[in-house]
Each structure stands twice: as structure tokens, then as C-alpha cells.
Amino acid sequence: MINAKTASLVAVGLLLSLGSGCGLGTVSESEGEAEVVEAIAPAPDSTPAPDAATPAPASPAAAPSPDASEANYQRGLEQATQAANLGQVAQSRDDWRLAAAQWQRAIELMQTVPSGSTNYATAQTKIAEYQRNLAVAQQQANRPAVNPSPSPVATASRPAPRTPAPTTVAAAPVVQTPQQQAPPPTSAEPQVFRAPIIRRMGGTPVVNVRFNGNSPFPMIVDTGASGTVITRQMAAVLGVVPVGQARVNTASATNVIFPLGYVNSIEVAGTTIDNVLVAVAGPELSVGLLGQDFFQNFDVTIREQEVEFRPR
Which of 75, 146, 176, 283 is the most buried (most CB within 10 A)? Predict the structure, then answer.
């Protein structure tokens, strides 16, 4: 307990400390209990004390803000896209090393997404996917070189041949550019001949066929017939002269003898063959058969409303 005498001494000690600028003032009483009172005076500094209304500066945040987390997530996606695009065209080991570095950077960005983010679950899935892609890129980057290209100095000093030589092809790198692997076509696609189907007989298409340049007749497109067969009426109109006989088997009979004769031409949908040997059927055949002797050099495609003849 401080008595009246001690309290008076303490007050005097405080005034002396503040007036003299000392950092510490101590007063003690020799009789009874000893009391120690410390007074801290302002340090002799020219810098004014901050105003009470001025807020203290905020300390820097240790964890990334939600906006920074979202930005890292998007950057990770962009980095992965760049790595995937490079992997599509990578040829050299340096290309694969660069792709591996981009996959590694994408993984690092995804790992910064905190567990409280809405993108956290997706980021974890992406990390596993990117790690698999990273392993593939590293494997390609570490593969042994095969048939390396000539040095730049040797390539520059040797004039390029005007036409490819066998030795030049052998010296070319094994890995080719996409342009070398898929050169542009040098010729147009062959014309496809299309004959409209005028009707069907037993499901088999019937098309118009022109003989000798001016006489059209309906003919069955018979992909199983080895030769063309015309009716007796057609032979009469076309003036076919028998030059021989053929013994054939039909769907209804065997060892049937058909006369053979020539027609000047057979034309279907704009494609023509000349001087064709045809067989003349008996009275049982009412519609002729267009056989392999006409379309043996074509791939035949039967569609709903037309038959296509595509040159091989």
C-alpha cells in the first residue's frame, strides 16, 4: 500500500522524468513496502506521432485471394491447352521438352487452387490428367535420336537438288512434317457416272442403256453376269449378226446355247465402250442384262434412286 509520502514522491518523480526526457524514472521507499513506478517518455525523435484517426497499414496476406485463385486456375487451363497443341505437332526432342515444361507449369498452377475454391475438385482431376500427359512428353523427349539431320553448315554448303534423288530421300529425317506426310492431291477425283433407276425387277435395278449411239433399251444391272445379254427383239432392232455360239447356265436351265454377235457401242450415263460381244437370249428373256463386260473397270454402287459407276 502506498502512503501519502510515497505518493508525493512518485508524483515528483514523474514530473522530473517527463521534463528531463529520460526513458525511465524509479522511486522507492526505504521504510515499509517498496513500490516501483516506471514512466516511459517519448523518444527524442523528430518524426511526429501518427494521428489517432489514421488507420494502421494492413499486413500482407499469406494466402491467395479468391480472384488470384481463379486467375491461376484459368492460367493453368491455358497452359495445358498450349502443351496439348504443341504435342500435336511436336517432331524433335526439343519440342517434347518444351511440351513437358508447359505440362509441369500447368500442374503447378492447378496445385495453387485452395480447397475452399469452387474449382478445387476440377483442379484435382486436371492435375492427374496433366501428370499423365507430362509422363508421355518426358518419354518422347528422352527417346534416342534416329537418323539425325545433317549439320546446318553442311546443309547450307550443299545446293538443294532440283529433283529428289534416292540418296537425298535416304538422308532425310525419319520424322516428317505434316506437309510431307499429307501432300496435296495432284489430280482431280475421277468422274463418277450416275444412271437413274427407272424401276426394279425382283429388287434389282433397271437403267436405260443406249446401243450403237441411238437406241435406248431398259437393262437389268446384273453384277453377277459375266457378259451382257440382249433380247431377240433388241438383236433385231440393232441388226446383230451371229458370229458364234456360247453354252451357258442360267438360273432356270443348264447348257443353254446362246448366239453371239457384236454391237458397235454400249453407253450408260455418259460412259461408253465400243465393239462389244453380246449374247442373244431366247424368248424367255424380256429385259436384257448389263454384265461385267461393261462395268469391269468400275466400282458399282447401287443407291436408292441411281446406280453409280466409279472408275477404278
Answer: 75
For 82, phi and psi rounded to 5 degrees?
-65, -40
Say if CB 263 and CB 212 are below 8 A apart. yes
Residues in the chain: 312
Can you give the pTM of this predicted structure?
0.40
Q: Of the ranges 21-30, 62-71, 80-89, 242-251, which is most confident?
A: 80-89
Residues paired with 274 in a beta bridge: 265
Cα-based distances in Å from 198 to 49, 159, 305: 106, 63, 8
Alpha helix stretches (DSSP H) within 142-274? 152-157, 166-171, 178-181, 232-238
Pairwise CA distance, residues 269 & 194, whole Å: 6
Residue 192 and residue 311: Cα distance in Å, rounded? 7
Neighbours of 102 (CB within 10 A): 24
How many other β-carbons are positioned within 10 Å of the β-carbon of residue 207?
Answer: 19
Task: State the Cα–Cα distance between residues 272 and 268, nearest whole angstrom.
Answer: 7
